[in-house]
């Protein structure tokens, strides 16, 4: 998919395009793209993106990028209405821990409680992904 095509699709399908930007070599463009679609991003989509960053990148110990820094920046720049939505979800407990200064991934600490987060992703994000097509 070309850059122009992604840019055209971004406001129409923000979750799908932002998910593409969470992978190499596009990760460096993630925040720029997110900044363009805060108004189009639903609370559910926002929470799915948080969940992807936390469970598929940080807790899976990906080292190709500073995903903790990305998560913190994504949270810090996000509008209040999206933060309020996320605060009412299961993923928020993980997010609070990671946002704390000095956070270091301690897999055993998180592994016993990862299943609910993974179920969150499967239940909400995957169902949403199936219901929208590019």
Short description:
By secondary structure, the protein is an all-alpha fold. The protein contains 9 helices and no strands.
List the helices and strands and how they pair.
Blueprint: H1 3-9, H2 14-21, H3 30-36, H4 43-58, H5 67-77, H6 80-87, H7 92-99, H8 107-111, H9 114-131
Helix pairs in contact: 2-4, 4-5, 4-6, 4-9
Q: What's the overall geometry?
A: globular
Work out the strand percent.
under 5%
What's the rounded overall pLDDT mean?
83
Order of secondary-structure elements: HHHHHHHHH
The share of residues in helices is: 55-70%
Biggest sheet features: none
Structural class by helix and strand composition: mainly alpha
Radius of gyration: 14 Å
Q: What is the CA–CA distance across the termini?
A: 11 Å
- The low-confidence parts are 111-121, 129-134
- What's the total helix number? 9
Number of strands: 0
């Amino acid at each position: 998919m070309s850059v122009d095509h992604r840019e055209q699709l971004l406001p129409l399908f923000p979750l799908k395009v932002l998910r593409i930007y969470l992978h190499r070599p596009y990760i460096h463009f993630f925040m720029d793209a997110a900044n363009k679609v805060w108004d189009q991003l639903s609370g559910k989509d926002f929470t799915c993106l948080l969940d992807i960053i936390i469970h598929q990148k940080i807790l899976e110990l990906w080292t190709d990028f500073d995903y903790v820094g990305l998560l913190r920046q994504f949270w810090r720049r996000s509008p209040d209405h999206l933060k309020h939505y996320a605060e009412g979800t299961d993923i928020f407990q993980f997010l609070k821990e990671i946002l704390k200064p000095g956070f270091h991934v301690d897999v055993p600490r998180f592994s016993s409680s990862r299943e609910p987060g993974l179920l969150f992703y499967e239940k909400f994000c995957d169902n949403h992904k199936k219901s929208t097509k590019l």
